[in-house]
Amino acid sequence: MLGICRGRRKFLAASLTLLFVPAFTWIYLFSGSFEDGKAVSLSPIESQPHSPHYTASNQRERESLEIRMREVEEENRALRKQLSLAQSRSPTHRRGNHSKTYSMEEGTGDSESLRAGIVAGNSSECGQQPAVEKCETIHVAIVCAGYNASRDVVTLVKSVLFHRRNPLHFHLIADAIAKQILATLFQTWMVPAVRIDFYDADELKSEVSWIPNKHYSGIYGLMKLVLTKTLPSNLERVIVLDTDITFATDIAELWAVFHKFKGQQVLGLVENQSDWYLGNLWKNHRPWPALGRGYNTGVILLLLDKLRKMKWEQMWRLTAERELMSMLSTSLADQDIFNAVIKQNPFLVYQLPCFWNVQLSDHTRSEQCYRDVSDLKVIHWNSPKKLRVKNKHVEFFRNLYLTFLEYDGNLLRRELFGCPSEADVNSENLQKQLSELDEDDLCYEFRRERFTVHRTHLYFLHYEYEPASDNTDVTLVAQLSMDRLQMLEAICKHWEGPISLALYLSDAEAQQFLRYAQGSEVLMSRRNVGYHIVYKEGQFYPVNLLRNVAMKHISTPYMFLSDIDFLPMYGLYEYLRKSVIQLDLANTKKALIVPAFETLRYRLSFPKSKAELLSMLDMGTLFTFRYHVWTKGHAPTNFAKWRTATTPYQVEWEADFEPYVVVRRDCPEYDRRFVGFGWNKVAHIMELDAQEYEFIVLPNAYMIHMPHAPSFDITKFRSNKQYRICLKTLKEEFQQDMSRRYGFAALKYLTAENNS
């Protein structure tokens, strides 16, 4: 210990010498430029020999000063070298089992209180703070509930992952909705050295439901108060973040601030940057008690072990009960109660420099927290207006936020070299499957796509569904990419029932879709549409993966397997619900066929009845679907019989049959080996037939395909010979798999293929 202090004294002495020697030198030089109490000019003109002020003594003085300046510069260089050596040799500080090194942190701010906060934030033993050990895990807690908050969490996590160099452990206090969304997202994101644990927010409601709260965050805005009880008892410290936070630096810098806590300091907070707690915002404004301007709880450093020993749970509860007797409710949720506790116990708080929580609500002093972009560390959009908040530099902050919003999350799957990762069974299985593929195979990319894990964000928009009392409800299932977005409003007008859509988008396209949907009255009026984003990766359109995602996340017992460029007839939803009962779909293995037609006209007067559709067929305005390019796909529907049919009729499977069907939700998934164009629906219908589904054509149902430009995948199929060869190879392998799974009954598929 004595050696450490001596080393620090030497380090400090070298630092002071480096700072003061240049200062004394310039004082000396400056005093030397006075003669008889008058300043002697050192301008180039006056220093020339022909100047009237020039003398021999002046010249000698100047030369001696220049020599002394060179000597001082040499001394400074030597001191800098000594300082750097002292810094590199400074002893490590051990805390627990973690070996740490030292680094400096500087704060900014203009007002007295902010300067005080920065000084307090930077004061520690020997004026230094330890950096975080390379592989030390940083723990982060976030309370998240609902669909919109889940989107915000993704942007926050992106900003953290972008800058991080340490393993991360996220503790997510989430309701059932957020857990479903975020569990799927992180499972498919597969970011190395990131662990996720969930805690049921609904189970915690009883802990805080007795506190009346006017804040827009609702009951979930109070749950940070109970983290000492909620998080594991062996977790000693955690960074707690609001969902509307954006990081502009490595979170390890904030984690390192824990080292500066002294005595009974257990809460790290930034001073509130608005006048809320000063009580002067309007007449009769009466905020909760706070110390000075109070503290903002968007970013909190919690020393959990000490808080538990201090009986934090009892402390905040007693304070809340006492204050609620006069305040009646909280206005800023947990922040009011935290501040009331700190008012009574100011020794609990360690004031963080304000750049750790630059608060962008209206009328704040956030501009005093930074002088330059490099000063920014954490941005907090803590206004209900969010990106529309008033701030002189809001355009810069908005662009920074949008950068992470639209940033490709796949690029954040970076390995932390040198840090051991926990064994991930899914990742290991994936690597094993990929290692078994032959990279020299000409169809390698097709085969690899089958195993690609696409990052998936379920329920990207708010979703509500009330189950039908008669248990006959049907969900329309489809998939799409950005170029089919214009079909959404039309489908919603034609189908009033629930819809499940899988959208294949990039991160930037997902935000374009969000803006499109939020700007559409038709889409915003529908809460029973589930939008599931599957993020782009690889060169193929994973059509069957998208269908499986949409199928898996329906809430009804039945589903109508459609495509996005088809418009169902008006009233089809109710007609299918009646057909489900009539044909006893609940107790039989049936696939109800909705006959498909097409138009070549972009403007179509949609037929309102079967009779009107038949008339348009006769006039050549409509055609049976793909009759001119792929007759086999829908020929088994028997359109001639359908024209006069009044009751459902059964048809037999034939090669290349690919109708659009209504089935129970427990039907087989689509085969993922088929990507892009070709055989993706054909293989699924073949599987249904192998499982002995009956194909029943509905006599009064129809759907119409709307024209559009050819997809990129069909263009590749038509122009690329290797694409067609690989598709043929995959077909043959699928048929062989069918033979292995279904035995003798599956031989007909090989025979039918050879005869077709």
From TrEMBL:
It is a single-pass type II membrane protein. InterPro entries: Glyco_trans_8, Nucleotide-diphossugar_trans, Xyl/GlcA_transferase. It catalyses: 3-O-{(1->[3)-alpha-D-Xyl-(1->3)-beta-D-GlcA-(1->](n)-4)-beta-D-Xyl-(1->4)-Rib-ol-P-Rib-ol-P-3-beta-D-GalNAc-(1->3)-beta-D-GlcNAc-(1->4)-O-6-P-alpha-D-Man}-L-Thr-[protein] + UDP-alpha-D-glucuronate = 3-O-{beta-D-GlcA-(1->[3)-alpha-D-Xyl-(1->3)-beta-D-GlcA-(1->](n)-4)-beta-D-Xyl-(1->4)-Rib-ol-P-Rib-ol-P-3-beta-D-GalNAc-(1->3)-beta-D-GlcNAc-(1->4)-O-6-P-alpha-D-Man}-L-Thr-[protein] + UDP + H(+); 3-O-{beta-D-GlcA-(1->[3)-alpha-D-Xyl-(1->3)-beta-D-GlcA-(1->](n)-4)-beta-D-Xyl-(1->4)-Rib-ol-P-Rib-ol-P-3-beta-D-GalNAc-(1->3)-beta-D-GlcNAc-(1->4)-O-6-P-alpha-D-Man}-L-Thr-[protein] + UDP-alpha-D-xylose = 3-O-{(1->[3)-alpha-D-Xyl-(1->3)-beta-D-GlcA-(1->](n+1)-4)-beta-D-Xyl-(1->4)-Rib-ol-P-Rib-ol-P-3-beta-D-GalNAc-(1->3)-beta-D-GlcNAc-(1->4)-O-6-P-alpha-D-Man}-L-Thr-[protein] + UDP + H(+); 3-O-[beta-D-GlcA-(1->3)-beta-D-Xyl-(1->4)-Rib-ol-P-Rib-ol-P-3-beta-D-GalNAc-(1->3)-beta-D-GlcNAc-(1->4)-(O-6-P-alpha-D-Man)]-Thr-[protein] + UDP-alpha-D-xylose = 3-O-[alpha-D-Xyl-(1->3)-beta-D-GlcA-(1->4)-beta-D-Xyl-(1->4)-Rib-ol-P-Rib-ol-P-3-beta-D-GalNAc-(1->3)-beta-D-GlcNAc-(1->4)-(O-6-P-alpha-D-Man)]-Thr-[protein] + UDP + H(+). The keyword Membrane applies. It is found in: Golgi apparatus membrane. Its main location: Golgi. Residues 80-110 are annotated as: Disordered. In the N-terminal section; belongs to the glycosyltransferase 8 family. In the C-terminal section; belongs to the glycosyltransferase 49 family. This is LARGE xylosyl- and glucuronyltransferase 1. The gene is LARGE1.
